[in-house]
Design a protein that fits this description.
One of its GO terms (biological process) is chorismate metabolic process. This protein is of the alpha/beta class and about 350 residues long. About 50% of the residues lie in helices and about 10% in strands.
Length: about 350
């Protein structure tokens, strides 16, 4: 891709902040006045693609006037999300400095193509969030469509991926996908959206720091002066004061190449461990569900919970398999014993249900 280096025009790292949604001119100006000085770009959602109907979907084009007021009064560059060609044309008309394409739009190549054609030849910066599903090619494809229309000031935003199984994060970071993007296109600035990954303001700082450990170029953080009263995504927005604290606490890793390689490699390996640990816990949960079914079956047929022959056969089989995998016999014995004891505990609980003991 033909990429213009635009991020060097900003102080590194790049911080973008502002409310999830524009709610009023007063709200926008209040937040802009309280943002820390490290923030150079003010963001606000004018159009909000929502998961369910009858939700707040943004104030619409009137919000562009409020964005322009922020730009005029406080000197910020301004940015908003565009989800179709009409949004793109309106944003250009109001001289919005930076446009971003959201995760729900990135998944639709036809929609991205229409936006790219509406922006053809623009010198505006266009950022593309990763698609909601973990598809690197779809992410890259959106940027290629924009580049194919002569748009060279491009950037990417990592906001995590939707998943059916929820854990502590709203969207799974799956950092390796973002790192694969970074490795493939090092010339394209990569920002992190810790607000959408976290889904919880108490986790935003943790996610932000992890992104800098990976060498990201900046952050887009949702910020609201009264976040609990926000019209959308209230739980993940931080106050300007908290944003200031987050920025000041961030550890920006050394740009010494040897140090960068060390931190990137270490974080990549730790991320793999986190993924494996999560997978192990999910498998253990599934195993215990099966143990519960076995307990119910034993109770129905009046069979004892503990079956020594079955346990000895299982243990011997697992130890043999463990040795083949390079694991110590002692470790696997202790691990399997702990699992077996938990299974016994679950089945004993089932045996005691509705029974006088």
């Amino acid at each position: 891709m033909n990429i213009t280096n635009w991020i060097d025009d900003f102080k590194e790292p790049l911080f973008i902040a502002g409310p999830c949604s524009a709610e009023s001119e007063e709200q926008m100006l209040r937040i802009a006045s309280e943002l820390p000085p490290q923030v150079k770009i003010f963001r606000a959602g004018i159009w909000k693609p929502r998961t369910k109907p009858n939700s707040f979907e943004g104030v619409g084009a009137i919000g562009l006037n409020w964005l322009k007021k922020v730009k005029d009064d406080y000197g910020f560059k301004i940015t908003t999300e565009i989800a179709n060609a009409n949004h793109a044309k309106l944003a250009l008309e109001y001289d919005v400095d930076i446009l971003w394409i959201g995760a729900r739009t990135t998944v639709n190549p036809f929609q991205v193509q229409e936006i790219a054609e509406a922006l053809k030849g623009t010198d505006k910066i266009v950022l593309v969030k990763n698609p909601v599903n973990p598809d690197l090619d779809l992410w890259i494809g959106a940027l290629e469509r924009l580049n194919g229309q002569g748009i060279t000031k491009l950037g990417a935003i990592h906001r995590g991926f939707s998943t059916y199984k929820k854990d502590r994060y709203r969207n799974q970071p799956q950092w390796q996908i973002a790192l694969d993007f970074k490795n493939k296109y090092p010339e394209i600035p990569l920002l992190c959206d810790p607000s959408h990954i976290a889904g919880d303001r108490n986790l935003v700082e943790e996610v932000a720091q992890k992104s800098f450990n990976f060498g990201f170029d900046g952050l887009m953080v949702e910020t609201h002066h009264t976040p609990d009263e926000a019209w959308s995504d209230a739980a993940q927005q931080v106050t300007p004061e908290k944003l200031k604290s987050i920025i000041e606490n961030l550890k920006i890793r050394s740009q010494d190449q040897e140090n960068v390689d060390y931190h990137l490699t270490l974080e990549r390996l730790r991320n793999q461990i986190d993924d494996k640990d999560r997978a192990v816990l999910e498998l253990l949960s599934e195993r215990m569900k099966v143990a519960k079914e076995i307990g119910e079956l034993k109770k129905e047929h009046n069979i004892t919970v503990y079956q020594p022959k079955r346990w000895n056969n299982l243990r011997e089989c697992m130890i043999e398999l463990a040795l083949e995998q390079g694991l110590s016999e002692e470790f696997v014995h202790d691990f399997m014993t702990a699992i077996h004891q938990e299974s016994i505990k679950i089945q004993n609980t089932i045996m005691a249900e509705n029974t006088s003991i």
